């Protein structure tokens, strides 16, 4: 996983390229959401009633949603009978409110599927079973485990800056001087 991240970061040199409008973080978030939606559809198709067993996947539709990283165009999976109702990005919703913090909070806390369910209810007002949450998170589980198991560097350089440059008038001339904060 580290080599993959290193390869990705080689192409991105500035904070704008990583965090900006079309940055790496936005691209990764988009992929995470799309994988979770695919997991939701898999759960829907697996648990449908016996008379609906002929239902199957039917490609994707495009949907533009607003997230905290700006506009994001998602590929929303759909089924042939049109009965799939996504929970993560509900139909007719154009805004993913607080998605980034919630995803980070869920994974950072190491929550179980039973702990995630109340979070989703708080977010979307939808009651979701623990088994469905499990199937959705299984779609991205490998990436999460690889990230958690990544080796850390022995040394991380840190630079502390303790001066502020200001314009000061000295003997009739304006010059920039460092003002040290202590």
Automatic annotation (TrEMBL):
Molecular functions (GO terms):
DNA binding; transposase activity
> In what ranges is there compositional bias, type Polar residues?
57-69
Region (Disordered): which ranges? Answer: 45-74
**Any keyword Nucleotide-binding?**
no
InterPro entries in the cross-refs = Transposase_mutator
Origin, by domain of life? Bacteria
One Pfam family, please name it.
Transposase_mut
Stretches with biased composition (Basic and acidic residues): 45-55
State the Gene Ontology BP annotations. Answer: DNA transposition
What keywords is this UniProt entry annotated with? DNA recombination, DNA-binding, Plasmid, Transposable element, Transposition
Family of the protein in this entry: Belongs to the transposase mutator family.
Q: What does this protein do?
A: Required for the transposition of the insertion element.
The protein depicted here goes by the name Mutator family transposase
Q: Which organism is it from?
A: Synechocystis sp. (strain ATCC 27184 / PCC 6803 / Kazusa)
């Amino acid at each position: 996983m580290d080599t993959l991240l290193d390869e990705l970061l080689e192409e991105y040199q500035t904070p704008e390229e990583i965090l900006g409008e079309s940055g790496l973080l936005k691209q990764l978030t988009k992929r995470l959401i799309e994988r979770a939606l695919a997991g939701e559809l898999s759960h829907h198709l697996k648990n449908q009633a016996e008379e609906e067993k002929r239902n199957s996947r039917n490609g994707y539709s495009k949907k533009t949603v607003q997230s905290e990283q700006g506009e994001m165009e998602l590929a929303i999976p759909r089924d042939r009978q049109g009965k799939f109702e996504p929970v993560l990005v509900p139909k007719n919703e154009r805004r993913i409110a607080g998605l980034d913090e919630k995803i980070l909070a869920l994974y950072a806390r190491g929550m179980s599927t039973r702990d995630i369910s109340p979070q989703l209810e708080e977010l979307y007002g939808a009651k979701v079973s623990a088994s469905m949450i499990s199937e959705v998170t299984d779609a991205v589980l490998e990436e999460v485990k690889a990230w958690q198991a990544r080796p850390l560097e022995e040394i991380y350089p840190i630079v502390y800056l303790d001066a502020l440059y200001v314009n000061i008038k000295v003997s009739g001339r304006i010059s920039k001087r460092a003002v040290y904060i202590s």
